Structure formats: C-alpha cells, structure tokens
Amino acid sequence: MASLPYLICIPSTYLVAWWGDKFGRKNALLFMSSINAVIWTLKLCSMNIWVFVIARVLVGVVMAASCVTCPTYIKEISEDNIRGALGCWNALFFTTGSLSAYIVGDLMSYRAILIMFLVVPLVHCLIFLAMPESPSYLIKNGKDEEAIKALIWLRCRKGNDAAIKEEIDFIKKEQRNDEGKGEFLLKNILTDKILCRAFQISLVAALARELCGAVPVLNFAGDIFQLASQMMGLVLTPNQQTMVLGVVQLCGATMASSIIEKCGRRPLLFITCIISGLSMCMLGTWFLLNENNISAPAWIPVLMLCLCIFCDASGLMPISVVIAGEVFSYKYRGTVLATTMAIASIADFFQLLFFKPLAKTIGVYVAFYFFGAMCLSTALYVILVVPETRNRQLEEIYDDLRTKKEKEKLENQIEA
C-alpha cells in the first residue's frame, strides 16, 4: 500500500505532462484537484479495502501532477529574480500540508479528517478558476492578447509597459528556437548534445533527492525513535514522532525558499548533498557499532535522521525540480519533468518495497553507507558539471554546458 502510488506515478507523469501541453497548465492543475477530491470522497463513502486501493492508485496521479505540472506552471508565471524562491514553495507547502495532517490526525476523528481534506481541493478548484493560464502556453497556441493580459495581471503592470513586451518577445524567441525540431521530444533531447547534458543534470538531481536516504529513513524513523527511547529514555508516541519530523521538514523548506535567491542553486545543492552524505555515513557507522555491541551515544541516530530530513527539504527536494524547470524551454519542460519523475518513482517504489528485507539480510548500515556515498558523489558532480541557473536565461546556461571546442566552433560560425 505504501509503495503503490509510486508505481502508478510512473505512467501518470506522462499523462499529466501530455494533459498540460495539450489543454494548458491551469486545466492540468484543476484536473489534479478534482482527482484529489475524488480520493477523499471515496474514503468517506466506503471502508471496503478495494476502495482504499483505488484511492491509493489515484494518489499516484495526484503525486505526478504535483511534481510535474506545479513546478512547470510556477516557472512559467514567475519573474527570473524570484522563480527559485517560488519553485521552493512547492516543497514548503508540501511540508506544511504534511505537518498539518500529522497534527489534525492527532486531534480529530477519522471522518472529520476526511471531510476537512475534501474541502481543501474543492476550495482550490474554486479559487484557481480565477487564476491565469501560463503565458508560455497561451503564446504557443497563438493567444498573444490573452498572454499579455495574463502577464499584466501577474506582474501588476500596465498594458503599455515595455517590460511586458520584452517578456512576450523573449517567450516567442525561445519557442522559435524549438521550431523545426521533431515532435518525438525524448529523441530530440537524447540526440542533441546540449539538451542531453541538461537532461543528465536534471536526472542526477532528481535521483539524488530519491537516493539521499530520506525516503527509507522516513520509513525507518519509527525503529530509530524506538532504539533511542530504549537507550536514552526519549519516549514519543508515533504521532509525536511524525510531528517532530514534520517540523524539521518545514524548517528546511522555509530556509530554502528564504535563501535560494541569495546563495544560488548550485551552492545550496552542494552543501545539502555534503551534509546529507555525512549524516548517512554517521548513521551507518552508529548501526555498525550497535550490531557489534559497541556502545555509541543514542542521540546520534536521532540527530542524523533529522539532519537528513532537513537537507532533503532545504535543498535536494526543491532544487532538483527548480533546476529541471530552468534548463529547458517550454517545449521540453513537461516531458523532462515527467521522465525524471518517472525514473525517480521507480527508485522510490523499489526502496519502499525492499529496504527493510534487504536491511535485515545485509545489514542496515550497508544501506546507509550506500545512501551516503550517493550524496557525496552527487556533491562532486555538482561542483564539476552543474552550472548556476539563478537569474540566467536559457542561452547563458547552455553556453556553460558547451565544451571549449564547441564554443570556438559556434564563434566561428557566427563570424562566418
């Protein structure tokens, strides 16, 4: 039941990406909220096990839409100087919602919880009807006047403002650069050197978020808290444990949205990878010592657990999505986010399915050392390969992805 949504998320990412490209980002988000409302309605109507299975299947669709369409829409309506901060808000609201669910779950009855969660997507549907469509989508479909109106509303400017015309011209230029290329988008990406490098960066960032250990660590949190309670008297109920983790996640996401435009994507991703990697190695060492009956402070696993969750929420989770949205044009953005999300979902599915059996077979410390090695390897990759994308146009980012020989060849072509 825990891993089922991640399995359904794999095909659903392409469904919602196609829906967003075909019918608009706004309609895709309304579709997501409608599915969300259906989930809570089903749970209200029946306690049958198959109803809950269907609800879990639909959760995979909502996960796909929130991870593909939300960041795409946010990127396309945002100004360059705040798109990183707004991109991090996806993680901020995700952690806020999780913490709210933990608290509500401890205070209210089962039926009252379901009714409250049903109200949220219904209210969202009503409010979002008044929101504008993505200007990039409108221009792609020849609706220039609607795109101008949307930008005027989004930027709080007047119709004759030069900045609006400049932004419209830039969107058109970006889309003209993609004209003449084939419609099989993944083939275009894999055959074009620059697009392929951008895709590799997006994929590594997405996998780093999933393989940093946050997903299985959250799954293993109850065991860690239980060990801590036995050794140091830290007694917390399961609901209190989830609240602690929810607060840590919320603090991490809040920090990310506050500093990402000041420090940039690359430094924040590097730092969170290093800290997360070291915390996983420390956690692995603690379990190794514990298995060999060597005493070690009981606060170490709890602290390392919180550090991993904090780093995930403050860097790995939001920045992987922000970078993927910034290194691709409108034409490829939805497909790339869908593909990276699908591959990440496969990793999550197998982690949730096999983590505990494998941990019992080969030792949990081996798993944590693996996650630590993945984080530290990603930190090295960020330093060597990943360009800074903050406040930069696509052409500038792609110029950083070119080799010295490719830059010289391009300069010669321009001169000729």
UniProtKB/TrEMBL annotation:
Where located? Cell membrane
Bilayer-crossing residues are 49-74, 86-104, 110-131, 268-288, 300-324, 336-354, 366-386
Q: Give the keywords, sorted.
A: Cell membrane, Membrane, Sugar transport, Transmembrane, Transmembrane helix, Transport
Q: GO molecular function of the protein, one example?
A: transmembrane transporter activity
All copies of the Major facilitator superfamily (MFS) profile domain together span 1-390
Assign the protein's first listed, main location to one coarse class: membrane
Give the superkingdom in one word.
Eukaryota
Membrane-related topology note: Multi-pass membrane protein
SUPFAM superfamilies associated with the record? MFS general substrate transporter
Which terms in the GO cellular component ontology are assigned? plasma membrane
Q: What is this protein called?
A: Major facilitator superfamily (MFS) profile domain-containing protein
Species of origin: Euphydryas editha
